[in-house]
Amino acid sequence: MAGKVVATLVLLCGCYASRTDMRAAAGKVKNTDEVKQAAADFQSDIEGMKKVLADFQDLRLTHTLADADDWIFSVAWAPDGRLAAGSRDKNVRVYDEDLRLTQTLGDADDPIESVAWAPDGRLAAGSRDKKVRVYDEDLRLTHTLDDADAWIFSVAWAPDGRLAAGGNDKKVRVYDKDLRLTHTLGDADRLVSSVAWTPDGRLAAGSYDKKVRVYDKDLRLIYTLGDADAWIFSVAWAPDGRLAAGSDDKKVRVYHK
Question: Which has the least CB within 10 A, 51, 64, 128, 131?
Fold first, then answer.
C-alpha cells in the first residue's frame, strides 16, 4: 500500500507539472505539433494516475482475525502463504492460506514479542519468557533456545537458515541452521529491539542506544550508524541493499552504499 501511495503522489505531482508547463508554454508555441505533444503528455499522465488510483482502490479489507485475547505484537507470512500472529496473550496463532485458524501454539509463559518464518517453513517465536521457540514445518515444537537471560524482542531468519535473536540484555544471539549458538554480539549499550538479514547474509540490529549496527556475513561489525538521537524501534532491508531504520523521533532514516 505504501508503495502505491508514493506512486500516486508522484503521478499527481507529474500531472500538476504538466498543467503548469502547458500554461507557461501557451504564449510560446510556434506550431501545432508542440500543442499536440503537450496534450499527449498530459493525457498520458492522467491515464497513469487513473490506473494507480484504481489499483489502490482495489486494496480492500478482506479479513479481520479476532481470535486473540490481547494485543498482537508481531505478524509474519510464511513462504507457503500461512500467517503467524504473536500476541500478548502468550500464544502464537497460525492461519492457513485461506486465513482459517489452524493452530494455536501456547508453549510460552509470557507475551510473544516476535514471530518469523524461515525459508524452509520453520517458525520462530521470541517471548518475554526469555526463550525462542522453533517449530518445524508441521508446527511441532523442536527447539527451545534459552541462552538469553532477558526478554526476546526480535527474531529473524537469514536466507541460509541462520537465526538471530535480539533482546533486552543488549545482545544479539546468532544460531546456525541446526540452531546451535555460534555468536553473541554484545556491541549495543541498551536493548536490541529489531534484527534483520539481507539476502546475502549481512545482519542489521537496531537498539535503544540510538544506533543501528551492521555486521558482515561473518558477523564482524562493519558499520555503526548513529544518526538518530532516538530509540531505534525497527530495521528493514530492501532487496537492492538499502537499509531503513524507524525511531521514536518520528523519523525513518534510509541508508545506501
Answer: 64
